[in-house]
Each structure stands twice: as C-alpha cells, then as structure tokens.
Specification:
The complex is a heterodimer of chains A (about 550) and B (about 300). Chain A has about 550 residues and is an alpha+beta fold. Chain A contains 13 helices and 25 strands. In chain A, a hairpin with a 3-residue loop joins β2 and β3. The C terminus of chain A is likely disordered. The chains are: A alpha+beta (about 550), B alpha/beta (about 300). The interface between A and B is large, with 84 and 68 residues.
Chain lengths: ~550, ~300
C-alpha cells in the first residue's frame, strides 16, 4: 500500500467547489448466484469509506446467523428480510457512493435466471456493467446471458471482474483462460476491461493487489473513477429531441412546453419541428425557475416557449427541424418479457413511450436464444424471454432507434387487466407500411406488392419457343409468370386477376429479332418500362 | 455545452418525475414532513411547474408531538411559496391518550403516523402521494421503486414490485389503489445538503447547532419541550450545544452534540463523522428490518 501524503488542511469551500465539478457514473453489476456480487459491492463501499459505522454494527449483529468471516459485506446490500434469511439477493438494490473524483449509483441486480428482468431493469439506466465471473467456474451460460442483456440494453462499457482469485492461488493462467473464453464469445475487446479480484480479501477492488504482481492494471475503483463512458456526450451530440410532458399555462400571456431534453441541445432562435403536426417554429425562450437560459442540453428538465402558437399537448414532440425523428405506428422492437403471464398475441397492451400512452398489438415474435444468438419463431413469450417482435400502435410514435437514443427508442408494455409492467422494448426500426396486415379481401395493390410487378398479358406472336424463353426469364427474376398454352380470354383474365404476367402466343408475327433471347429481352424491357410509368402515375 | 454536474442530473430527473405524476394522476398530493428532504422536494416542485404554481396540495401528517419550531416553519414556509397545506391528525388516537410512553414507539407510530397517513390519503381521495424518502437512508428503502405501488390498504409488497426501466413510469392504478412516488430516490443525504446550500433553500432552525436545554439519557439527548415526556427522579435539563440531524417527533428524535451552525459546517460534519442519519431515530432500532415491516403496513 502506498504511503499517504500528509493531508492538507481541510477547507469546506474547496470541498464544495470540488463537489460541483463531479459527474455521475451509473453502473450495474451482474453475476451468477454465489459469484460474490453483494460481497464486492459491500467491499467497494467499505474500503472506499462509504459505509456508516452504525451500518457496520448492524450487519455485524445480523451476520451471526450466517458464516462468512468477521464482517459479511453482502449484508450491507441484502436489504429485505427474505434475502437475509435465504442469503441471496432477490430484487434490484440501488446503492450510492462517492470518491474524491466521482459520484456513483450502483444498480445491484440478482443473478438468478428467474430474475433476468431485474438485470434488464438495472441495466436500462446504467452506462457501465460489472460482469462478475467466478475464477473456479469460468464463463458460465449465465455470464453470457448477463453480457447479452447488458449489450441489448445499450451498455458499451464492461468491467469483467474475475472474482475469487484467492481460491485459485491468484493464478495468472486461470485469469487469462477466462479472458480468452469470454472474448471468444463476446469479440469486443475495446468494450471490456478484464481484471482479477478477490472481493472477500479486497484484492484489486479499491487497492491494487500485491498478491498478483503479474497484473498491472488499475483496481476496479480506479477504473470506475476514470473510465469515460461518453454516455452524456453521446446524448448531447444527438439531434434535439424534446418530448412534451406538460403544457404550462399560468395565464393568457405564457404558454410553455415542459419536458426533459432526451437528446441534443437547444438555444433561443433555433428552428424546431413539432410532431405530429409537422409545423415549424423557433424557440423564443428556455424558461426556468432560475431565469431564462441561453442554452440547454440533455438531460435537463426545462420549459420552452415558441415564437408561434402551435397548440402542442402531452405526448407531442419538438425536434431539430432538419433532422426529425421517425414517426411510425409499426415497429420492429426487441422485447424482454418481464411478467409471469405470457405474451398473448390476441390481446392489446398499453404501451408507454416518452410521454405517450397508446394501445398496441404484438405480432411475429422471434425468440432469441441467448447462448447461440439464433432467433426462431415463437407462439408466445414467457418471463425472461428475449425476442424480436413487431408492434403496431394505435397512434404513431416519434422515435429513434434505441442504439442511437435510449430515451426516444425505449418503451414498456402494460397489461390492461392487471396494470403490471409486462415487457421492456427497444425499438430497432419502423416497419414499412406494406408489411402491415389488413383484413378483408386481398387487393390488387397487395398482390402487386408481393410479386413486385403489376399484372399483365404479353402476346409474343406465333413463336412458342419465344414464349417458353420469356416465361423462364421472368420466372427466374421472381415474377409470377405463366405461359398459357391453350389461351382463352377467360383464362387470361383469370391470370391477370391473380396478379400474374400471362404469356400467350398470337397468330400475327411481331416485329422482333429472330433470336428468342434477344426478343425476350426487348419484351421484358418494354414490360417494366410500362410498369414504372404506371407506378409514377400513382399506382393501382 | 458543459456536462451536467451530478446535482444538475439529479435535479433534472426529479423534475421529470414530479411532472409525470402531475400529468398522469387525477389527484396527487405531496407529503410534507417539514424536514430537509421535504424542503428540497418542494423546491423541485416549484421548479417543475414554474411560472405556474404547484398544481397539487401538500399534506402534513401531524402527530401533535412535532417540535414547535417545525410547526411554525411549516405554516410560514407553505404560506410564503403559496402552496395549499392540508394537516391531518389521528384525533381519535390522541384523545385516547396515545403517546410513545404508553404504547411503545412502534405502536405509537402505527397509530399517529401510519394510520393517520392512510386516513389522510383516503379522506383526500389521493391516488398518488409524493414522499421525500431516499434509497440511501435504510436498507429496505434501497429496493424501493420510484413509483411504489400500494394496494387498497396502502401496503407494499416488496416481492411483487413493478419493474421500472429507463424513465418510463407505470402509474396505472384501480380505484382505491395508489402509488407512492419518491422523486428523491437517487439523492444521498450529502446531495440534499449540497443542494440546499447551492439553492439557498430555507430549513427549520433545529438543524443548526445552538445551546439548547436537553435531557441527557445515556447517549441520547432528548428535548424537554413537551409535557408528555416523563422525567426521571431529579432529572433536569442541561444546556447542550446540539442540533437535529433529522426531524421527527420531539420525544423520539435525539439531538446530536454539534458545533455546526451553518450549512457548510453541517456538510463538513457529515463528511467527517460517518453515522447514518436515522441512527438517532429511536423508531428504527426496535428490531432488525423494522423499516421494512412498517413499510409493508403502509408507512412511507
């Protein structure tokens, strides 16, 4: 342990000044049962002197019931009676600590398979995840699940802590093997900081360990204090998005739109576009309790007034005029199912997205196997399932893909009968309108969308060989093409009605090259020219 | 644009929560305990709706055993910022002579705080109630959601909480059910004091050290200002320079010896001696996990 320099005289003014400069890092912890998560967090809090004396006293009293050394650090975080009795962590616990450099919020999440929903909850607001791996057990299926959930929820920084090094004689080769096994499955070394620790003994948690001289990297706490997640810069660098939470209208002279900036920055005079109306205006002022601001950025909560009366209401959005968000009522979304009651494709759910609450229907679930990352169609989704689905909403949502914007790209589903929050969603993209599933008889337009061409009848003259070549060419291009050998007017009409390109011979020879291949080329070219003109003319 | 400091980040998050509740519920109310956390919560509510007034009332559950200075501050401050104040007492229990000495602290709290709170919420027909609780206060609070669902009896089921992701809060309730909302969930005691300092928010003078007459009982310093406090034979108040670290009922809230008579000094004291702030509350000490039990029954 390094010798401490003589402490300078404490100055409260200087302390408060330093406090004002601190930023906030939110991180989450994940590990399988018995990987020692609670112990690690207890150790982080204790060794960084963020635990109060009476809390230590109360856990020393409580640990009489369990056997884990003189102070059982996990008892500092296992808050519920059932947890202390069973010696496991059941629910997400939030912990707060600070060092001279930074403030931290920890979402401590349980590792049991059945509590995957809690890991997703903790990860949703975190910018970094600590993935704990037991040195004796190596990378388990659970480690993969945790890593996958962290990356699904948009976490781009992982501290992979190989714990219980004291139980493998602080072996470098054990650590390296685990590192390689992890990267073989999660090939993003730029996102990962691997380090060997012992939470129980305190090695590399706060102080660097003398027992692992082969490891030169910073301790876990040093890493947490200095890592740049870039999350806030990334949010501030995105186009301006401002979901309107509430209209503030104390009198006739003031109409302001209150909300929290989801991304980007805004100044008075900036042009904004209102959704869903699409109307443009300029920001007149950024009004706050502390006076008008010259500039505001994500994630500030402010009130904006506009130059023009646009009559916005809750759920609308103000956005950067040249770069508006997507507006759609049909999405591809990744979903984590959180509830014991499985997904019912026949029912409607409530969907909350920014300040909008709309009705939604789910379709086409493709369950993702967390171990292989393969998707397969599923009839329903059970608790802790992760899937890609399509969601159709009763009103358009104003969104960005989740990978670009965690606020305008996220949603939750609510069961209308139980009011439970049943799923968390991350929007991938809008689904084009033609893929929607209308009811009623199939229309010509739908057939055209499926086949990629309009229906037509092509007469080729008396050459049967040309008809055969043409049919083959069109069929190979993916067209619905049929050569009708004994053509009748009724038959051709039926084929056209089915959306097909009907091919028939006719008595009169046409002005076409002798080669069947060349003649077919010309006929196809004419056909698709006509098709394009037809499309520009406004469709069917 | 400079990056937001942690206090600005917390402030923005809390304002977002307060606005969501005001928009999504029919009849919200803000619990007002007169303490420092309540003062911060009130300031955040002012900020959330400025320049409009706070669009909901505040409710004080008065056990009638609060410090006199608290009541004076309550009446002055709510009038000054122009928010509607509702005071609720469990008069029936008081008439029957409920005191912590007759009933024990736990049953006394049950009647005068928990029961009175539930009655007050029911009488007002409130479907959402803000509380100033923070997750760093106590272990069972660390697992509390920002929107904490309560059944028709106001009770909390820690194993059946709604998952809470991003900033998307689920405020759906059936008639009779309600949500307790904790906009300061992510604040620590230090954050609260730093914010009070930065924002110059008024707080009850009891937080500041001065010479006060006190009854000295073992480690505890108890204010003699209420008649209900029984005196031991020959016991007399002595003048002690002290302050309250958290405010509650006068018989059950011990003072701490302190020289901290300004907010910076309070902050300095806080970082130099690390004792969690509820330690001087007699009520949490009764049994391991006692806060969780009270919360399950409907307490904040």
């Amino acid at each position: 342990m390094a010798t401490l320099p003589a402490a300078p005289a404490f100055s409260i003014e200087q302390f408060l000044e330093e406090e004002r400069g601190k930023d906030l890092l939110r991180f989450t912890t994940a590990g399988s049962v018995d990987d020692g998560k609670s112990t690690l967090i207890g150790r982080l809090l204790y060794d960084s002197r963020n635990v109060y004396e009476d809390q230590v006293r109360s856990v020393t009293k409580a640990s009489v019931n369990r056997s884990a050394g003189p102070i059982d650090f996990s008892l500092l975080t296992d808050g519920l009676r059932a947890e202390r009795e069973q010696g496991i962590t059941i629910d997400v616990a939030y912990r707060y600590f600070a060092t001279a450099r930074r403030k931290f919020i920890i979402a401590d999440t349980p590792g049991h398979e059945q509590y995957t929903r809690n890991m997703a909850t903790g990860a949703s607001t975190a910018d970094l995840a600590i993935i704990l791996i037991d040195a004796r057990k190596g990378v388990l299926p659970q480690s993969r699940r945790h890593t996958f959930i962290a990356s699904l929820l948009g976490i781009r920084r992982l501290a992979v802590a190989v714990n219980k090094m004291d139980l493998v004689d602080y072996s470098e080769s054990v650590f390296q093997e685990i590192r390689e096994a992890f990267l073989a499955w999660h090939p993003h070394p730029e996102q990962c900081y691997f380090l060997p620790i012992s939470a129980l003994e305190g090695d590399n948690v706060v102080e660097r360990s003398a027992r692992m001289p082969w490891f030169q990297g910073p301790s876990l706490l040093e890493y947490l204090e200095t890592v740049e997640t870039g999350a806030q810069d990334a949010a501030a660098g995105q186009p301006f998005r401002f979901p309107v939470q509430r209209v503030i209208r104390p009198n006739q002279d003031f109409r302001g739109y209150a909300g929290q900036i989801a991304s980007g920055a805004i100044r008075p005079g900036d042009e904004v576009c209102a959704l869903p109306s699409g109307r443009h205006s300029r920001v007149r002022s950024i009004a706050t309790f502390d006076g008008d601001l010259e500039e505001a950025c994500a994630p500030m909560s402010v009130t904006l007034t506009l130059e023009d009366e646009l009559d916005l209401s809750r759920g609308d959005m103000l956005a950067e005029a040249p770069k508006p968000p997507g507006a759609a009522a049909h999405f591809e979304t990744r979903l984590v199912w959180l509830n014991q009651k499985p997904l019912d494709l026949k029912r409607r759910y409530l969907l909350k997205h920014t300040a909008q609450l709309v009705s939604a229907r789910i379709s086409a679930p493709q369950r993702i196997d967390v171990q292989t990352l393969q998707s397969a169609p599923a009839a329903t989704l059970e608790m802790n399932d992760i899937a890609t689905v399509e969601i159709e909403t009763s009103k358009p949502l104003f969104f960005d893909p989740y990978v670009r914007n965690r606020i305008t790209g996220s949603l939750v589903l609510i069961d209308v009968e139980t009011n439970a929050t049943v799923a968390a969603g991350m929007i991938v993209r809008a689904v084009a309108a033609h893929a929607s599933k209308p009811s009623g008889p199939v229309t010509t337009a739908e057939r055209r969308a499926r086949f990629g061409h309009r229906p037509a009848t092509l007469f080729v003259g008396p050459r049967e060989s040309l008809a055969a070549v043409l049919e083959r060419r069109l069929f190979d291009r993916g067209c619905m093409a049929v050569w009708m050998r004994e053509a009748t007017p009724e038959g051709l009409r039926a084929l056209e009605a089915a959306g097909a390109i009907a091919i028939a011979t006719s008595p009169e020879p046409l002005d076409l090259p002798e080669s069947d291949a060349r003649a077919a080329d010309i006929l196809i070219e004419r056909l698709f020219e006509a098709d394009q003109k037809f499309e520009k003319g406004g469709g069917i | 644009m400079p990056r937001l400091s942690y206090l600005e980040t917390l402030e923005a998050e809390s304002i977002h929560i307060i606005r969501e509740v005001a928009c999504e519920f029919q009849n919200p109310v803000m619990l007002y305990s007169i303490g420092k956390d309540s003062s911060v919560m009130l300031r955040l509510a002012q900020k959330a709706f400025h320049p409009a007034p706070i669009p909901f009332p505040v409710l004080h559950v008065d056990t009638s055993y609060k410090f006199r200075e608290m009541i004076a501050f309550r009446d002055w401050y709510t009038a000054q910022i122009g928010v509607k104040l509702i005071v609720h007492k469990n008069q029936e229990a008081l008439d029957a002579g409920a005191t912590p000495y007759k009933l024990g602290t736990s049953r006394c709290c049950g009647f005068l705080k928990t029961q009175s709170l539930l009655d007050g919420l029911r009488e007002g027909g409130f479907d959402a109630a803000f509380g100033g609780a923070r997750r760093d206060e106590e272990k069972s609070r660390a697992k509390e959601r920002i929107y904490s669902f309560r059944d028709t009896r106001g009770q909390w089921d820690p194993k059946n909480q709604r998952p809470e992701l991003w900033n998307l809060y689920n405020g759906r309730v059936e008639p009779g059910e309600s949500i307790r909302v904790f906009p300061l969930s992510n604040w620590t005691e230090l954050d609260v004091w730093e914010y009070i300092h930065a924002e110059k928010i008024p707080v009850v003078p009891l937080y500041f050290a001065k010479e006060r007459p006190m009854l000295q009982r073992g480690d505890q310093l108890i204010s003699p200002e209420l008649d209900i406090i029984p005196r031991l034979p020959g016991e007399k108040p002595v003048m002690v320079k002290c302050r309250m670290r958290s405010l509650g009922c006068s018989p059950c809230t011990g003072a701490i010896r302190s020289e901290a008579d300004t907010i910076p000094k309070i902050i300095e004291e806080l970082i130099s001696f690390r004792r969690s702030e509820r330690e001087n509350r007699v009520i949490d000490f009764d049994q391991e996990g006692s806060m969780e039990i009270k919360k399950r029954e409907g307490y904040f």
